[in-house]
Design a protein that fits this description.
Length: 102
Amino acid sequence: MAAVYVKGQQNALTDLIDFDKISEQDLKDILGVYFGFELRHSTSSDDARRQIIRAFTFETPLYKEVNRVCQYRDESAVPTLGPYGALLFWSLAYPPLDNQQL
């Protein structure tokens, strides 16, 4: 029964993020500010930002794990959750342009 639940959760995560549509350029646009490059928004990178944020907002194991790692400062999770955490941080810090409404 547990294996079915885990497989279902994995499918839910891949249904939330269409990894094939997130290009290397999208990742560079999102993380570019960190590396000292100019902030770039494109339709594609804004869609990637939405997918990254959306995956965190659903009740998946990802949400629970990211919160647990942050709460307990579990540095052993950095190799696995670190890249997603960085994308989530920069996606929230510089959200898609059409999400920035006053």
